[in-house]
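Researcher: Let's do a round of design. I'm pasting the structure tokens now; please hold your answer until I've finished.
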């Protein structure tokens, strides 16, 4: 294979990955300078969710533009977008990509955003943002991962007073691995909400919504088109403004919407009583609820438990039909492999990893059966389950 053919093959692979992550960009002939740019950019689903948090007609500044997925989503809702990217190669690629995508309301800048520089502040002040968005780099100059907000680049903790002097709302995207308690401590006095965003069972990102002189209003869980926001003052959850149906509805499963029960028009309805879903007494024929990673991260709703089916809760996890409820004992583990030669295995809260548990049971992965080793009401149990039809 010639060098030109190899480059073409790599470009084709990158384009396929791009179109999977951002389906609305398919066929536009866009440029991706590096695989890292693609890896770090938001998916179309999560980008459109963030756009749905912005009121229509606002002016939005994206201080860490990257490949431009978030700025693209903002552009379809905002009056104007201030896109900033210090990497000049990436900046030029995004300019061309946005032209191909028909984005006509974006301003492009290449500032290094930090506390020690003022040029970006003057430009941003002239733009007059209503909302500032940042996705700070979570690697230091040596390429090592960092975990504290103030170690990210730019340092959003140190910059927050300046940012809120320029706009009334600052949205910061952080790692899905970030500790929520740590975020509340680091952003105390600024943080008003934490949004935990998931898709397909995975926790994709955490959004910190910061405002001037803010008190913390709580955690919002968003997953695959459904949003749960506990609201102690009302039986109906508050929801962010509805994203316009013109924002590619067929590719927007995380689009916020009003509390409607009509699923026929892509308008999901919102559960109001997740906390009312109480685990039932153990018994065969019951269901095992396994919360999604995003629900676990948020701390909202129950953990893994036996319960009756709850339609609202099903949007934030998966139900399994219980076949057997057994004690966590060596004799039980040995017998399971003979009766279930093929099964997936999960261990939670027991002194074995999932792989160690599989080795003890001696079962092969796959099939419709799933064996869980978990703690129920303080007791270690083995639950043999099958997929619900």
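Researcher: That's everything. Go ahead.
Model: Designed sequence:
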């Amino acid at each position: 294979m010639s060098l030109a053919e190899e480059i073409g093959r790599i470009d084709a692979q990158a384009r396929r990955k791009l179109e999977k992550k951002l389906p609305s960009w398919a066929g536009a002939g866009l440029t991706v300078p590096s695989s890292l740019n693609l890896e770090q950019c938001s998916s179309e689903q999560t980008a459109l969710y963030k756009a749905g948090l912005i009121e229509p007609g606002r002016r939005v500044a994206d201080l860490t533009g990257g490949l431009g997925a978030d700025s693209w989503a903002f552009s379809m809702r905002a009056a104007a977008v201030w896109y900033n990217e210090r990497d000049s190669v990436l900046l030029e690629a995004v300019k061309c990509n946005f032209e191909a995508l028909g984005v006509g309301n974006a301003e492009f800048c290449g500032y290094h955003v930090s506390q020690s520089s003022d040029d970006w502040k003057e430009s941003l002040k002239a733009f007059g943002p209503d909302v500032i968005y940042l996705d700070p780099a979570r690697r230091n100059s040596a390429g090592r991962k960092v975990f504290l907000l103030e170690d990210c680049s730019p340092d959003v903790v140190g910059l927050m007073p300046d940012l809120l002097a320029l706009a009334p709302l600052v949205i910061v995207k952080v790692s899905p691995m970030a500790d929520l308690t740590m975020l509340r401590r680091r952003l105390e006095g600024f943080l008003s909400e934490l949004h935990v965003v998931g898709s397909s069972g995975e926790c994709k990102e955490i959004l910190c919504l910061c405002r001037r002189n803010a008190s913390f209003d709580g955690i919002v869980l968003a997953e695959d088109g459904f949003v749960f926001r506990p609201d102690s003052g009302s039986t109906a959850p508050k929801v962010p403004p509805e994203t316009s149906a013109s924002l590619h509805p067929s590719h927007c499963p995380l689009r916020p919407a009003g509390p409607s029960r009509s699923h026929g028009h892509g308008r999901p309805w919102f559960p109001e009583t997740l906390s009312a879903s109480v685990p039932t007494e153990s018994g065969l024929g019951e269901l095992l609820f396994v919360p999604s990673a995003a629900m676990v991260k948020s701390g909202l709703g129950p953990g893994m438990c036996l319960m009756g089916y709850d339609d609202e809760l099903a949007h934030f996890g998966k139900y399994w039909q219980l076949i057997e409820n057994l004690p966590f004992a060596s004799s039980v583990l040995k017998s399971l492999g003979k009766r279930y030669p093929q099964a997936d295995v999960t261990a939670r809260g027991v002194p074995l990893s999932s792989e160690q548990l599989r080795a003890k049971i001696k079962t092969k992965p796959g099939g419709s059966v799933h064996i869980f080793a978990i703690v129920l009401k303080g007791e270690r149990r083995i639950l043999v389950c099958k997929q619900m039809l």
